[in-house]
Amino acid sequence: MLACKQMSSPNQAVPAVNRQITLAARPVGMPKPTDFKLVDAQMPQPGAGEVLVRALYLSVDPVMRGRIGGQAGQARSVQPGEVMAGPVVGSVLESNDPRIAKDDVVEGMLGWQEYAVAQAKSLRKVDPRVAPISTSLYVLGMPGLTAYFGLLDICKPQPGETVVVSAAAGAVGSLVGQIARIKRCRAIGIAGSNEKIRFITRELGFDGGFNYKEGDYQARLKELCPNGVDIYFDNVGGPVTDAVIRAINTRARIAVCGQISQYNSERPEMGPRWLGQLVAKQAKAEGFLVQQFADRHEEGLKQLATWLREKKLKYHEDIVDGLENAPVAFIGMLEGKNIGKRLVRVTQSNL
Amino acid sequence: MLACKQMSSPNQAVPAVNRQITLAARPVGMPKPTDFKLVDAQMPQPGAGEVLVRALYLSVDPVMRGRIGGQAGQARSVQPGEVMAGPVVGSVLESNDPRIAKDDVVEGMLGWQEYAVAQAKSLRKVDPRVAPISTSLYVLGMPGLTAYFGLLDICKPQPGETVVVSAAAGAVGSLVGQIARIKRCRAIGIAGSNEKIRFITRELGFDGGFNYKEGDYQARLKELCPNGVDIYFDNVGGPVTDAVIRAINTRARIAVCGQISQYNSERPEMGPRWLGQLVAKQAKAEGFLVQQFADRHEEGLKQLATWLREKKLKYHEDIVDGLENAPVAFIGMLEGKNIGKRLVRVTQSNL
């Protein structure tokens, strides 16, 4: 084990400068590369109970749009001038805490920077023997737990039910459909390109899907969900969601995970009112954040790792190299350019 | 008891003709009196297992708008030419079933007519000793059960939470606020006149309320709900609901009972999209129908009767006399003219 850790250590000499991406300005509408800035900062020094981490991968997630735009209610905001917030997996260069050792791999909210200091207790140890460490930002991290608790706890799928998921080729959506299949449901995905639909049906085993940029949502839903929609896992909102809501069955469950179609709107978009449909169908729409299941994350990660080992879950990473490319990687993800989980490789390593 | 029943029996001679109100035409927008027709029908004869009932009170409820307009998903529709459907309480003139005796008081879906024949097993016996029989269409009937299960089961109120209810002076809303108070919550009502607000605060003990036809919803909500909104029991939808959703707290529960502001719309009204707010607040909106709690109605009625006896629940009836006035009573209720439960007294009695 020690040999394994040494082999995979990316710890070359530590430079004097820490490159960071900061928020230059609050984006208006879709973020632009100039809303971010690459800066050189001093290398941080870990204090008591803290560790110094070298970033290997950082995650770009839809939820981050809320953190920089100052929309009400979204996590805590990043202020202009501050380092962009986000989950990172990296290796430990120095530790002043007995729980974490040098060369351990850890995951935490370390932000868009090459090096970070954090409280040891705020970090999760990642075992590189279980799966490639990048999965700690995907199947075995926040997106995996989001799919797991959102589908299983909020929606309680029963065998034979029809589960529809939007942004189906994204990090969360791609897992939702596969977990639905594990639970013996019919999994139908909605995504924004024919390539994405091929990916979810041919690679991931979804029962069907359609490209929302082509054709009539209502007709495609009817064709793909002949028994109606029992569960809708919503990542996008907007007209796609309007169409699914018109197709729900009695006692349908809608897990509202994200609303990416709305994140760049400067004011609330208007849409047809549909609460009457919830009454007629005795259905619920429930918003959630993965943090609300914090005391059960270990349970979720254990199950996800088991499914991964059993090859019941497949995953696909869409990797962009270089910290300096994090803004364009993030913007591209908001524009739907990724298939599977988009990650930024900050430092090359063999982990 | 026998003496009591005889004294209160309204059973004069049975005429040869049964007056009925039928649906003349599917209403477009707000129903008009000419959408209904008073007709003379033959007296029905009870067959095996059936009873003949003389209507004493009939109920006019918002849900009936859906039954005549042919909106998707609402109960079963009334076809033009058919008797208007709706709950009735009446006394039994003849019974061909051992479970029900002559002079029993029963409640059931007997429709807008002076006499009706129904399967005995479809009727609920009403005990006139517990409360005036009209309450079987109100506190001790469908509106009471709707308030009870919608608030307690869908929303699970905790002491100290703030409960907001729309259409607060109506049959269901007036009970929701009082049950919220019983559960030691702060009860805030929204209604359409200052008289209604005086009624819910001075007569029913709500902690506060406001007339949505006056002033700024958001400012009034902020003033009346300084700790935000934990529970919203929605009977109306539309802009009132938009405002409450903007004021919800983390883990808020929204019980969607009705959407009376939308029932007369010929096409879906547009409104600002707000699913993102459900995510940010980890909140749910759940539609329900009282029928889904059918196996627990007895439990609900028992508790409601106890609260009534303990004077913890007050009620107010808004009675219109004469079967022929049922259409205008119904239309007036849709227009918000009633305070408390609107009923039509079909036959005078001392029950």
Mean pLDDT across all amino acids of chain A = 93
Biggest β-sheet of chain A, characterized?
7 strands, mixed
Q: What is the CATH class designation of the largest domain in chain A?
A: Alpha Beta
Fold-level CATH name of the largest domain in chain A = Quinone Oxidoreductase, Chain A, domain 1
Query: Which chains have the largest interface?
Result: A-B, 39 and 39 residues
How many helices of chain A in DSSP terms? 10
Tell the overall outline of chain A.
globular
Oligomer: homodimer
Helicity level of chain A = 25-40%
Protein model, in words:
The structure is a homodimer of 351-residue chains. Chain A has two domains: 2-137 and 316-345, Quinone Oxidoreductase, Chain A, domain 1; 142-291, NAD(P)-binding Rossmann-like Domain (Rossmann fold, 3-Layer(aba) Sandwich), CATH 3.40.50.720. Chain A is globular and about 60 Å long. In chain A, helix 3 packs across helix 4 and helix 3 (142-155) crosses helix 9 (297-309). By secondary structure, chain A is of the alpha/beta class. Helices cover 27% and strands 26% of the residues of chain A. Chain A has helices at residues 2-8, 63-69, 142-155, 171-182, 194-203, 217-224, 238-246, 275-280, 297-309, 326-334, and strands spanning 17-23, 36-42, 50-59, 88-95, 105-108, 115-119, 124-126, 162-166, 186-191, 208-211, 229-234, 248-256, 270-272, 284-287, 317-321, 341-345. The two termini of chain A are 13 Å apart. The first copy, chain A, contains ten helices and 16 strands. The A-B interface holds A 66, 71-74, 234, 237-238, 241, 251, 256-259, 262-263, 268-289, 292 and B 66, 71-74, 234, 237-238, 241, 251, 256-259, 262-263, 268-289, 292.
